[in-house]
Model the fold of this input.
Amino acid sequence: MSELISYHLDDGIATLTLSNGKVNAISPDVIAAFNSALDRASADRAIVIITGQPGILSGGYDLKVMTAGPKEAVSLVTAGSTLARRLLSHPFPVIVACPGHAVAKGAFLLLSVDYRIGVDGPFSIGLNEVQIGMTMHHAGIELARDRLRRSAFQRSVINGEMFNPRDAVDAGFLDKVVAADALKDAALAAAQALKKINMNAHKNTKLKVRKELLETLDNAIILDQEHLG
Done:
């Protein structure tokens, strides 16, 4: 597996660890590695845990790629939105063990999975696009609209408000917050609990619940390709 995404399988649980520089930037190569890791996890019929480095899940898209030109930016955003859609429809449960900051695309990873555990501490979680001069893309708006609390959605997407981990639970980015040294055990415990459910029922129910969202994202991805380009 790529050095950007390490893959560790143990007892039916596949842990995908993102490692790409200080902020774990999401680049085209990282997305390709994510997709390869998800292919492998599907073949292994494994519960998936996605995590990062101590203190950070991801700071978002690779800004070098985003500023290289319209073609490069559109390609990366399209690949990222397609990855989010894939995670939302993955046939087995997906958990994020967020070890700290999760900003922009890092926060969208939280909105794309089935269960999210963060760590207590001075960390920022949220969508800072408008803070850095980026108009939010359609797919991001629709994903946030579906997964965040209504009041938090407005504050997050339009105002670029960032949340500490405990407030991120109330906003809808996280489901649970634990001490940093308890994150690994909490994620494994959540995975063990999810192993007890019927996977076929999980997959079919997930697709029913998220049917409208997935269709909306398909349309949003097309709109983003037209408007961002």
Summary: The radius of gyration is 16 Å. The mean pLDDT is 96. Residues 168 and 174 are 6 Å apart (CA to CA).
